[in-house]
Design a protein that fits this description.
It holds the Pfam family Cupredoxin_1. The protein has about 90 residues and is an all-beta fold. The protein has one domain (about 5-90): Cupredoxins -  blue copper proteins (Immunoglobulin-like), CATH 2.60.40.420. The chain has strands at about 5-10, 15, 20-25, 30-35, 45, 50-55, 60-65, 70-80, 85-90. The strands form 2 sheets. The chain has a 5-stranded mixed sheet with strand order 3-9-8-5-6, with no helix packed on it.
Length: about 90
């Protein structure tokens, strides 16, 4: 039997919508980022907490896997660290 996967879509356009992603601890999770605007420095999303850096081509969804083993608040941001979002695992 396969475990359920939490899936969240984040739209990237002048920031992150939603900017806060809530996940349940211990359930595998994926966040799909879709950049819909070419304005600003949002062509990359990265997270030191989750050790990923992903390019976001315009209108092409990019999915990252999130380790939900540890509860807490974890950040992600654009390539220039000007726009921020967070993942809350509880």
């Amino acid at each position: 039997m396969s475990e359920a996967v939490q899936k969240v879509n984040v739209t990237v356009a002048g920031g992150y919508q939603p900017a806060v992603v809530n996940l349940r601890q211990g359930i595998p999770a994926e966040i799909t980022f879709t950049r819909t605007s070419d304005a600003g420095c949002l062509d990359v999303v990265h997270s030191k907490d989750f050790d990923f850096e992903t390019e976001l081509p315009l209108d092409q969804p990019q999915t990252v896997t999130i380790d939900t083993a540890k509860a807490g608040e974890f950040g992600f941001s654009c390539g220039m660290d000007m726009f921020h979002g967070k993942v809350v695992i509880s």
